[in-house]
Each structure stands twice: as structure tokens, then as C-alpha cells.
Amino acid sequence: MLNHRLAALLVFLTCVISPLTIHWITTPGASWLRPYFAWLLVIIASWLWQRRRGQYGR
Amino acid sequence: MGGDAAFSLALFLALFFGIAAFAQHRRVPQSLWTHPLVYALSFYGVSGVLFYFGLVEVIGRYGLAGLLGLMAYTAVFICSPLFLEPLRWISRAQAFSSIPDLLVYRFRSARLGQIATLVLALSSLPIAAAQLKIIPDTFFANGAIDSSHRFTLMALLTGVVIAFMRLFGSTFKLHRAIPMVMAFSGAIALIALLLCGLLAVYGVFDGFANLNSWAESSGQTAVVKRFDQAYALILLFFTAPFILPQLIHLQTLGRWWPRNIPASWMPSLMVWLAALPILPILWAGLKLRADVPFHHYVSAIPLLLDYRALHALTLVAGLFVSVGLITVMSIAIGKLFVTTFIAPGRERFTDVDLDQWLDNWRFRAGTLWVLAALLFAVDIPSQSITDLTITGMMGLAQLVPALMGTLYLPRINRKGCLAGLSVGLGLWAFGSLLPLISGQGEITTPFTGPLVVGPANWAYWLLESLIANLLVTLVVSRLTSMSREERLYAHRTMVDSLPIPRRSSLDPTTIDAVEARLADQIGNQAAREVNQVIADLKLDRNDHRPLTLRTFRDRLNYNLSDKLGTFASERVINSIMPLGDRGETPVDDMSLLETRLAGAGNAMSGLAAELNKLRLYHRQSLENLPIGVCSIARDGEVLLWNHALAARTGISPRLAEGAKLASLPEPWGQLLLSFADSDATHWPAHEVPHPEHRASSPASSWFHLNKYRVEESSPVYAGNQIILIEDISERLRLIQELAHAERLTSVGRLAAGVAHEIGNPVTGISCLAQDLLSESTSPEVQQTAGIILAQTERISTIVRTLIDFSRSDDTIDHGPVLLARPADNAIQLLRLDKSAKPVDFVSAIPPDLQVHGDVHQLTQVFVNLLSNARDSSPAGSEVRIDCEITANGTRLVHVSDQGSGIPEELHDRVLDPFFTTKEPGEGTGLGLSLVYSIIRLHRGYITITSPLADGRGTRMTISLNAP
Fold first, then answer.
1. What ipTM describes this predicted complex?
2. Of B609 and B234, the one with more pLDDT
């Protein structure tokens, strides 16, 4: 069963957030750790979302 | 062999087999080996050397685009509700455990499954070759072995894989051994990488500040910020978890990892941790000017800095990761060959022990494949594990269009898939695989100009092959037709579909009969399989409901398909439990549909979730209605049996739902079947006898039956019926009581009038008769006058009783009464009548027991009850008065005799006025009516129990309230 709401959100985030994130990462002089921070944020968001999902059964 | 290398190899062998043996002998608790962290670590562990040694090469070669590729590799887990959960859902519903099985099921083609297996086996060869080559190369680069021993070491590692498969080859043992070994592999690889990263930061750069300044000054921070191959890397790594055989195998161990859903962020965290130290390691290697390729930096840096223990650890981790991946891949591919080639080619399995036979063939196929991988590794000149792994993954990616078609595109057909796959594989082989063996080259085409053929141009060939594959698949599918069966299964595997099982009649109709038929197909294994299904579903072997058999069939197919593959499993199941069409329109299986919807609750959102909530609300409303409701399919199978009906009938929903109406216990089965078959939509006040009638309970209950038949406007459900069963027994009892009370009232009024009208003339007759008696001297006249007087006395007695009866509802003096007093008074009065039958009255009423009532009225009650008891008792018998107090304080007074009893059919009539079984002249028929009236005025009730025992005796019970 496809979760259409989540799919739409994913497409939106990919289209809007990804270019901004890549721009933020590739800014001259930016720390090389920035992509790791961005990735870690995705993991934390996923953890929080799944925790909430487990809690509310959705 | 050098000291570190020999020590690492020995330690690896000891740990690799030791952990597997430890896990196999069930010394690892279930909670550990099914823990999400074990899953995440084992996921990382089977990802292979590209994610260990090769990470430095990937990021060194592709910069941050490589990091994006690694993120994409775990995106499928991060977004598991979008990708993994639908796959898991379809896997559960349609019983498949590998991509070839899914394709066989979807496209109804065993050949497509075989081709997919060949693609997987062929494409996995470069990946396995990368694992086999990296260890000897590392040992050689570190000076542990010379060039001539490379093949020996590769052969040794191949032997380790084969030995592992032989020792732990049983599927059941592997359920525990593989996750634990792979989790250890992932853990030790992560530890080695992180320690190596710390060594790079503090051992080479003296801290982060120096690392950053070196990276800036050398221009490395700018060098890594490039994304030129990002799209191809993201595409390739994103699809990998769907198609890499070892990952699919790991996920489907025990039919999808039981507890991985709550922790699907963990695999991403593992890869993140692995990627974190890679840039410091890369830069440390560059600063140290390590004279080895990028993929040797992880082991070379500790060696250059003389950290021997860490160097040994990196080698052990490398051995674990490389041998672990080949082992799981060999087992997975061995199983694929069995399910797509070996098992479908055999008609029956009666002459073999199925599990043993399957294990042997898996071992043979896996061994052959790993030997092929060894030969491939020896022949191939490329030393880059990135090139080898990417080439393999490109070949595997050719299955993605077919997989997309399966999940998203119902119009894609078998011919389109085969054509697309052929074109895609051809381009991949031409552009990537063959140049890997024969060396890189260049071609010129009219459309593209000069083109590099080989790993250096892999991104181009990946996109070209995938686009060509997809386009050809679409075009050929559009131009060719697909069969009705293929179209049906195409919709069943759509990612947003809820496959609705069909409810068909099954043959045979018992689990024992299924087992007997299954034994004809798979021999001795049949009993084990049947018992496994019974245990899985917690079934009762003697439960013969059609729903149970359908559930049993689905589960058996599910279990067998994991062993035999979709094709062979469906063949076995269809031969032992064929679905009977019988020319009927197929109907949806509502019960299984409900079960699947219940399991899909989490997967729904938005409109679907709201509709599901509405469905649950309506379902619960029906189940909790105070009126009995059952839903009947047109073939007589019960689809719904609500709680109220269960309470009325004593048949639980679990027993009723899924059963045929005719098989329900009597009287309900036949009653509902008759009603369902009748043309009537309403059966008013239908009497239903109690199947286990006891003397203390009513013999029957009364029900209104109504039904609604689903009309033809809903063709799938047309013919189904909803039957409402309303228990009206209590209502009928109240109506009867009301009628009785009205009858008594009218009789009372009549009695008062009659008493008045008859009393006066009788008094006159009596006076005249007395005069005649006193004045006449003639004996005949005196005798006649005496008879007249006796008869008028009798009339007067009747008249007085009538008057008493008519006044029984007058206001009475209610208050606390010692219950023993009216009882004793009545006994005394009755003992005065010497002409009556001698019986022994015994009162067991406690002397201090009080009730709320009127002592005179209660005396009248006892007189009537005791005199009736005496009249019906044999001479010398005992008439007892007993009393009990209920939990709510009500006093129940029992007057029991040992007489001939009251026939059951007269129980309802004995309280009616003028009803008597005595001879004419011996009773008025008003005694019990009077008792009834008085007790009702005391807000009590009267019940009759007769016969008591041995067909004799009567017990009249009256209830009285406490004061």
C-alpha cells in the first residue's frame, strides 16, 4: 500500500530542500563536515518520525 | 605470510566459525538476534568491501557525490513506508521471498524467474570477485604475501565460504547464524574504520584544527565538493537494496525480519558512521603519501604509523566483510537456483526428505556459483573494487524496470520485460562487463561520436542501458497483448493495491485430508509442513470451517513458496487444494479482507485511513448492537456473527464466522438456513427450543427474524443476506403477565358482582332452610333442609372466596413481618381440619427472618400453598417450607411436596383463575390465583418447579423483599 501523503512530501522535500542543502554544503570555505550534519539530520528526523509513528500507530 | 596477516587470518577463522556455531546452538537469545541493532549491523556487514575498504576510493574518486550515493543506499530504509513496507506487504500477501519469485508470480512465467536468477548470478560475479581480490591485494600491498600466493589466498577464502555453507547450510540454522555473524562483521568493520579515522585525525594531523587547515591549504576541501557523477551514483545505490541478492536474502530470513520496521533509521546510521572517518583517512593517506591505491588506505595507515594491533583489526574486519558477503550471496543465489530451476523441474518430492534435498541442492548450486566467482576473480585484470562492484550493480539494476513494472505499471507484460531486459543486459555487457575482462576501449557511433567503453564511462552506460531497457519494456508491452491471468496478477502486485482474496469452495474439506494429499506430493515432509502451519496460525486440526481451510491454504502456500519457489509451490497447492470455481461468479473473501485491512492500518493515510476508520466504526457498531446480527454469503457461509447473537445462541463469533450455516449447532444452524432459504423477509415471534433445557429455565425462547438480501446492483455481493435476530422472550413474558393481570382484574370485578348478587338470595335460602329444619318434624324434610343448608354453606364459602379474591388488591398493611409467623399460623389452621389427608408440615424458616409484607395476606398465601401441597401429596408424606436469602437480600420461600407433580404444559395455566385439576366440588380454582395476586402486591413473583426428582414433587417458590 503506497502512502501517497508521504510520497508527495518526499518529492516536495527533494525538489526544494536538496538544492538548498547542496548549495549550503558547497559554499566556499564551508566545513567538510556539513554534508555529514545534513545526513545526520535526516537520520534524526527519521528516528523522530518513526518514534511518533510507533507511538500513535500511524 | 607476515605476522599480522597470519594472525588476522587465524583470528578471523576462529571468530567466523565460532560465532556461527554459538548462534546455531541457540546460545543467543531470541531478543538479541532479532534486535533491530543486530539487523542494522548485519545490513552493514553484508554490504561488502566497497563499504569498508572501498569507501575511501568512492569518495576519493567521486567526492561528495559518493557521499550522496551512500545516503541513497540507505534511503530505502529511511523511507521504508514507501518502499520496504509495500514490498513486505506484497510478500506477505502473495507469498514470495525473492525478486525472481516475485517476477514469476507477477508475470506468470517460470522462464522469466529463471532469467532473473541468471541475471542475478551473472551480475553478482564482479561483486564477489571484488571481495575475493581485495584481501590478497591488501596482504600483498602490506607485504604480507608475495604475488604468487594471491590465488592460494583467494582459493582459501572460497574454501571458507564452502565450508561455512556445508557446516551451517540448513536454512533453519542460518536464521540465527547469519544475522549474528554478519552483525559481528558490521560491528568490527565500524570499529576498525572509526579507530582508523581517529588515528588519522590525531596520529597524522594532531587534531581537527590541523586537519582542517591542511585540507584547506592543500585544496582538498574544494576537491571533494564535486557532484559530477551524483545522479548516476544516487540511481545505482538507491536501487541496490532492492536487488542485491545478499540484502534481499537477509531481509527475507524468516520471511522478513520480524522487528526491523521500528528501527529502519538504524542502517542509515551505520553507513553514516562508516562514512564519517573516510575523509580524514583519505587526507591522512594523501599527506603520508601512501604508495597504495585508495582502497588500501584503511589498512595501510595503521601499518605506516606502526599501530600493529589496529592494522590486524582492519584486516580481520576486511576478512569478515568480504567473506561474509560472498557467503550470504552464495547461499542466496543457491536458493534462487533451487526455487527457479531445480524445484520447478521436479513433479513430486515423495522419494526424498524435502528439507535435506533442498539443502543439498542449495549447497551444490551455491558452491558452483562461488567457484565461478573464483574463476572470474582470477581472470579479471581490474584491481579496483569500485569498478567491479559498480559493474555488478549495473547488471543487477537491469531488473529494476521489471520491478518497477511489477509495483507501479500494470500494463507491463512478460514480453515487454523480456525484451527490455535483453536490451539492457546487452548494453551493460557491451559497455561495462566485457571491457572489465578485455580492457577499456573506444567506439564511434553516428549519434554519439567517440565513446569510451569500460568502467571509466560507467555512468553513461548505466543510464543508456536503463533508459533503453525501460523504453523497450514499455513499447513492447504496449504493442503486445497480455493474458487475462497476467492482467489479474498485475493488479495484485501493484504497490497501492490491496489484493482481495477470492472465496472459493475448497476440496478437500479437512486438514487431515489435506495432509494426506500433501504426502502424495512431498512425502514425509507433509506432516511437518501441516504441523508448522497449524502452529503458525494456532489452528485446531478439527476446525473444518471453510475460512480455516482457506487460511490454511494461504499459509501453506506461503511456507512452501519459501522453500520451493512460487512456481513449484503453486503447483503443489493447486493439486492438493484446488480452488473450485463451479461456474460461479468469484466473490471476495470478506473475512480475509478484514484481516488484511486490519494488518494494513499503518500503511494507510489520508482518505484511505479515514475510510478505514469509518469501516472500523461501522464494524464495531454492528458487533456491539444489542440485537443479534449475522451476515451470510450467498453460499451459506457466515461472514459476521455479532456479540449479541453469540450471547443469545452460545456460539462464539470465532466458531461461527467462516463456517457454513448448516454446520452450526442446532437449533440455530437449521433455523437460520431455513430462514435464509425462504422467500419471507420476516418471521415474527418464532419459537426456538433451548437445546439444553433444564427444569429451572424456560423450555424455549422467542425471536423475531428479519433479513435483507443484497440486490443485483452490487454484483460482487449480490445474494448475500443480513439477518437480524431479536430476542422477544422477555417482551412476551411481560405481555403475558399483563394479560394475566388484566384477566385477574376483570375476574375480580366479576367476582365482586357475582358475590353480591348471589350472596343475598343464598342468605335467604339459608334462612328458610334453617327455619324448615327447626320447624319441621318430618325426617325427610329435615334431611332435605340439611342438604340445602350444606349446599348453601358451600355456596357461601365460594362467595367468600370470591370476595376475598376481589379484594386482594385492596390497600394492605405492609411492614416488617417475621416470616415464620404466617407460616406457623397457616400450619396450625390446616392441622385443625381433621378430615383432611394427614401429612407432616415442616417449616425450616428461621424464627428471626423478616420480610416486608402483610401478615394476614401472607397467612392466606401459606394456607393456599400448603393446602394445595397437602391435597396432592400422599398420606404420611412431608410438606416442607424452606427459605433462602439471595445476594441482594430477596427472600425465596420454597414450599415443596412429594406429590404427583404438575405437568410442564400446565405450568402457565395453574395461576389462572378457576383453573383446577381437582374433582368438581373439591376446589374453586382460585387458590393459586389469589396467591399470585397477593405476591404481586408484595412486589414479588412466583415460580413453579415440577417435577423435582424421579418425576415427582412440586416446588412453589415465592420471592419476598427484605424489610
1. 0.91
2. B234
Query: Apex CA B562: angle with CA B561 and CA B564, to 5°?
Result: 55
Mean pLDDT of B631-647: 88
Long-range CB contacts (< 8 A, 24+ apart) of B890-894?
Answer: B890/B959, B890/B960, B890/B961, B890/B962, B891/B819, B891/B849, B891/B851, B891/B959, B891/B960, B891/B961, B891/B962, B892/B957, B892/B958, B892/B959, B893/B819, B893/B845, B893/B957, B893/B958, B893/B959, B893/B960, B894/B955, B894/B956, B894/B957
Distance from CA of B391 to the nearest CA of A (A): 26
| DSSP track, B714-766 | STTTTT-EEEEEEE-HHHHHHHHHHHHHHHHHHHHHHHHHHHHHHHHHHHHHH
pLDDT tens track for B600-623: 666 677 777 788 888 889 988 988
**What predicted TM-score, i.e. pTM, was given to this entire model?**
0.74
DSSP E strands: which ranges in B857-941? 878-885, 891-897
Please name the residue of chain B whose CA is at the shortest distance from the CA of residue A50: B262
CB atoms within 10 A of CB B118: 16
Q: Which of the listed ranges B98-112, B170-184, B713-727 does the model predict with the highest average pLDDT?
A: B98-112
Nearest to A50 among B67, B215, B265 (CB): B265
Rounded mean pLDDT, B645-656: 87
Q: How many helices (H) and strands (E) does chain A have?
A: 2, 0
| Gap between the Cα atoms of B556 and B573, Å rounded | 8
Least confidently predicted of B321-335, B385-399, B788-802: B788-802
Nearest to B262 among A25, A42, A50 (CB): A50
